[in-house]
Amino acid sequence: MPHLQTSCRDSRPRLSGRAKLDSTTNHVATDALVRRVERSSTAVLLAAVLLLTLTSACRLDMHVQPRENPLSRSDFFPDHRSERPPVDGTVARGDLRADTYFYTGKVGNNPGDVMPFPVTKEVLERGRERFNIFCAPCHSRLGDGNGFVPSRGFSRKPPSFHDARLMKAPVGYFFDVMTNGFGIMPDYASQIPPQDRWDIVAYVRALQLSQNATMADVPAGQQIPSKLPRFREPGSGATLPVLVPETKSGETKSEQTKEDTK
Description:
- This protein is mainly alpha-helical.
- 44% of the residues lie in helices and 5% in strands.
- It has a domain at 135-151 and 158-212: Cytochrome Bc1 Complex, Chain D, domain 2 (Orthogonal Bundle), CATH 1.10.760.
- The chain has helices at 17-63, 100-104, 121-139, 148-151, 164-167, 171-180, 194-211, 253-261; strands at residues 4-5, 14-15, 106-107, 110-111, 231-233, 242-243.
- The strands form three sheets. Strands 1-2 form a two-stranded antiparallel ribbon.
- Helix 3 (121-139) packs across helix 7 (194-211).
- The longest helix has 47 residues, at 17-63.
């Protein structure tokens, strides 16, 4: 037990010499322990920082690599361009236009007058669908030029496909106009792919035939005028009409059912 000494001047307890030595020793040991802990903590912190630095440097090396912005200047190449021109003769996949007539509608510098593929019912149906979407707003669904856009003050009415000039025009002429535009009509090459452009050309020819047909063009057994379509659902502005299916004899199923029940 430490020996306490007191005096009248100071009532606080004082430590004897041995107690002071023990107290000093404890303080020294505590300070040494604290410094040791601080050194070890510093070492751990430095190790963690070093590890983080190494891993982050590896990640930055993967994500931030030397590169050039598109079409920027580069001193690496003699022409000082970072973009390298494609190898001569390179063609993008799916863009080899070996059939020149299919993509231009021309034989040399003149429009051709032959379809590049057989015209089938599917071709005409596709052509009618694309025509009604892209062409009918100006040319009308009959192709007479009385479309919705001209009726609302368009500066110039489109010509009728049934004029003598366009009746005699080769099919390649229509394809070329859709591809490159004509007059105030813009080109539709970006909206309509070549196959659909040819399908529209085939349907334009069908429109011209329908408005200028003679009795010699009517198939045997075809009624003149044709029977009006029968609708199962008339449709609305948001839905298309649904036709009553026809049988092989040309009658609708509802008509055939009535005949069978008599």
